[in-house]
């Protein structure tokens, strides 16, 4: 899939998703919102994909909302529509570009460089793992425009960072480095070449059992919050169909022979899990 704003290529079970508006530091205009949403929706149904790498072309991952475009194309004037949900979705179109990566059934790894501001940071937070350059610049920048973060940050950030840290960053809009972001819990780790690191990690993940990867993402995402009974039951529900399944046996064979696993069709994720 390719359009003016977002490209998706798939090779060796890894989807490479690129924000493609380098001349504007990948600023979010209407077309970018649409392209990111369409990319995530497509990847939900790609059974051959085992990992996703999300990155931006040019000097930055994403500098946030293109305010001029938002004014010219009515996004601000149509603020009342923010409470409208997309068909069959929990989110609106603006939230979907961040939240929808959580609905992709395989790990999503975001490579951050340059500026990662406002909506750009919220998109990155929708990924499962974030790798940034030490000197990259991040900010919850909505306060600069007299706004609050509204692209899924209240779902994605609370499990990662302390509330007082999130409050300080939200109330000030302070720009912080990739190195600082690791300490805050906002970024997983730093690397001088985050895209290469993300691709290497995605390739490693793609070599594992695709069933265990998909079930594992569901387990870690759904059971991270909640009561002990729910968490323990979810572990059991997801583990039971894996034991003795063809891909589980293939993974065990690969581990014992130290050869790449030969994996077949995917198991469906159990209903209610």
Structure description:
- It is a single chain.
- The protein is of the alpha/beta class.
- Helix content is 41%, strand content 14%.
- The chain is built from eleven helices and nine strands.
- The protein has helices at residues 30-44, 67-72, 93-103, 119-125, 153-156, 163-172, 178-184, 194-206, 210-223, 228-239, 246-257, and strands at residues 6-11, 14-19, 51-56, 108-112, 115-117, 129-132, 137-139, 176-177, 189-190.
- The protein has a six-stranded mixed β-sheet, sandwiched between helices.
- Helix 1 runs parallel beside helix 3 (93-103) and helix 9 (210-223) runs antiparallel to helix 10.
- The longest helix is centred in the N-terminal third of the chain and has 15 residues, at 30-44.
Biggest β-sheet description: 6 strands, mixed
H/I helix tally: 11
Taken from the alpha-carbon principal axes, the silhouette is globular
Mean pLDDT: 91
Alpha carbon gap, first and last residue: 30 Å
Provide the spatial order of strands within the biggest beta sheet. 1-2-3-4-6-9
